[in-house]
């Protein structure tokens, strides 16, 4: 039993990166055994930068000022072949296209900065107030302090977007670490044994609280792994059932007949190249 569970856990590590979210249904294309023959929209994979209609219109208007003929050609191509139009637009309006990209990036940074500052105000209000004050009085120092805050708190901030429970544990741990550092400094500078003993007792309490948080973080990670393990086990069962289904001679015959018909009578407007 232990060996079997160890094998499954190893599969989890290998499979988590490619597992879809629990409950996500397969598309029709994924259900089709001949999916590799399905038409692909080349160049439009995940992560491609897609322009909005407003951005395209802006680019064409700008291009029109320096090359009216090319702008007119692209406008016609936009209606005739949208995919080719996008490629041609990037080629002939590089400067304008680059400006749109830069604007998108800057807007994204501004949103991220605003989101981070809102989170910081809730989690570490004292530091947020200091940043807000510097933002109005000393832009250079504000930039440096902001960068330091992002470096220090970014893991907790990012986690707040994915797992609020874990994020709260991380925030509390950061606060305890700060208190720990303050106490160790005061202990080293203590003038009397009585003061040192009092501070040491406080430090021991803080270390105990940190211990509990560390264990809680491990518990959260363990629970996350169990959920993914269950999901992967379900997918293993589904995959096994799918293979069994497609091994059935009648199912094979039906699929082959259907696919042959599609190849001989392709749907209108379908792109195969």
Provide a descriptive summary of the structure in words.
The chain is mainly alpha-helical and 273 residues long. The protein has 11 helices and no strands. It has helices at 2-15, 28-31, 53-66, 68-80, 82-92, 94-123, 125-137, 139-162, 164-189, 193-246, 249-264. The radius of gyration is 29 Å and the shape is flat. The relative contact order is 0.07. Mean pLDDT is 82; it is low at 7-31 and 36-47.
Largest sheet data: none
Q: Roughly how many Å apart are the termini?
A: 51 Å
On the 0-100 scale, what is the average pLDDT?
82
Strand content: under 5%
Output the keywords:
273 residues; mainly alpha; flat
SSE blueprint:
Layout: H1 2-15, H2 28-31, H3 53-66, H4 68-80, H5 82-92, H6 94-123, H7 125-137, H8 139-162, H9 164-189, H10 193-246, H11 249-264
Helix pairs in contact: 1-10, 3-4, 4-5, 6-7, 7-8, 8-9, 9-10
Summarize the structure.
With 273 residues, this protein is mostly helical.
């Amino acid at each position: 039993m232990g060996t079997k569970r160890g094998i499954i856990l190893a599969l989890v590590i290998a499979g988590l990166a490619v597992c879809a979210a629990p409950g996500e249904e397969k598309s029709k294309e994924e259900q089709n055994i001949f999916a590799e023959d399905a038409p692909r929209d080349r160049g439009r994979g995940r992560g491609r930068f897609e322009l909005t209609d407003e951005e395209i219109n802006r680019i064409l208007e700008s291009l029109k000022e320096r090359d009216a003929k090319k702008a007119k050609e692209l406008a016609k191509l936009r209606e005739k072949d949208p995919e080719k139009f996008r490629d041609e637009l990037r080629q002939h309006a590089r400067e304008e296209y680059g400006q749109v990209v830069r604007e998108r990036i800057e807007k994204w940074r501004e949103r991220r900065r605003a989101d981070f500052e809102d989170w910081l105000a809730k989690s570490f209000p004292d530091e947020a107030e200091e940043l807000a004050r510097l933002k109005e009085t000393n832009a250079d120092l504000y930039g440096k302090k902001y960068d330091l805050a992002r470096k220090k708190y970014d893991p907790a901030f990012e986690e707040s977007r994915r797992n609020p429970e874990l994020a709260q544990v991380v925030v509390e741990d950061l606060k305890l670490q700060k208190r720990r550092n303050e106490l160790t400094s005061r202990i080293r500078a203590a003038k009397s044994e009585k003061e040192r003993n009092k501070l040491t007792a406080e430090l021991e309490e803080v270390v105990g609280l940190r211990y509990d948080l560390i264990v809680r973080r491990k518990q959260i990670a363990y629970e996350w792994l169990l959920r993914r393990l269950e999901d992967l086990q379900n997918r293993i069962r589904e995959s096994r059932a799918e293979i069994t289904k497609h091994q059935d001679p009648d199912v094979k015959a039906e699929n082959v007949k259907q696919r042959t018909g599609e190849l001989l009578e392709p749907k209108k407007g379908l792109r195969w190249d």
